[in-house]
Amino acid sequence: MLPSLPRLAASLALLTSTAYSLPRNVLSGPDEGITLSPQSSILSARDTACNNSPDLCSKSYSQVTHMGAHDAAFLRDASTDNSIAGNQYFNATLALDAGLRLLQAQVHNKNGVIELCHTTCDLLDAGPLEDWLAKIKGWMDANPNEVVTLLLVNGDNQDAASFGSVFTGAGIDKYGFVPTGTQGWPTLRSMISSNKRLVTFIASIEASQAHPYLLPEFAHVFETPYEVTSLAGFNCTLDRPQSAGSTGAALQQGLLPLMNHFSYQALSDAIMFPNVGDIDTTNSPSTTTAGALGKHAQTCQSQWGSKPVFVLVDFWDHGPAIEAADKLNGIEGKTVGRTTPAGAGGSNKKSTGSTNAGTVGMGRASLVAFFMAAVMLF
Ligand SMILES: *[C@@H]1O[C@H](CO)[C@@H](O)[C@H](O)[C@H]1NC(C)=O
Ligand SMILES: *[C@@H]1O[C@H](CO)[C@@H](O)[C@H](O)[C@H]1NC(C)=O
What we know:
This protein is of the alpha/beta class. 25% of the residues lie in helices and 15% in strands.
């Protein structure tokens, strides 16, 4: 006997929401006449997963830990001559492929264009924000079950209208999620089905009625310190916005916690660059090693009574950092649809980051800019 259409729909809905948490026989009751298994070719795990896991679909956005690439556009690779100012070995598209869902970057005003520049455009210029957003939009088009978050540091305090025209130009505004006041954050599934699955935080902008999806960062997020120069330096203290008072007060106000977990190597008080020397320890999911990502997250979770919603790391392929987020999300070893780039976590990369190679990839002008501006790295 063929099941009626509503009945089939109900079975599919059940499969979608519970295929991975219910024993198989629940999916094919004796009177159904059909068997739907998780192996069904109609519904692949990829289709039923949200952010790489079926278990995350019913979680609210604020119950998920979103692993993020700090300075995602600033690469230490052939495109920058292995600049020591670079924070990542692999670009934002590859970060998304590997399961990261938060991309942070810094922008500056270069002759009227919003440009991805690291501290100054002389130091490291990764091109116009609009081009980068267009690539992220392309990735989101191809990956309709993924909720992505952007966090932009607004180096020259450009206004929401300027960002708005760049987002529109890239076509990514169509995914822009607008929170609805008092209702808290929706589930990933709901953001995916409404196709409003890009959350954009920008530091130092005013909320804009014309571009309501451009969210002033510190109206929604609080951060731990970001200028850490040793593995012992990571803690869970509120750094920004200072006006929130304390982590407890910030959580009470509904601000989502962002744990910064990257360290700088300091050449002097004023000169710092991303530290690759300790990166395998820094990004380790270990919950017992001092300075490790896993331990830092666990410490914050116990101090705050809730886990970090956002985490930012450098050189995300090391660790790999995503493992710590999977642990926090309870989906370790159960994810689908990720790919890791060739050479990820490679030890060959490490040598380019030593202090001795300090001038690799830096012309004289950029070196001078670097020395003058390094205090501002964040
Ligand atoms: C990352 O690199 C890949 C492969 O080279 C390229 O196709 C993609 O457009 C790049 N993404 C970004 C954001 O630059
Ligand atoms: C956390 O780290 C920041 C930055 O290093 C420091 O200023 C602050 O005092 C630390 N907090 C605690 C509780 O140690």
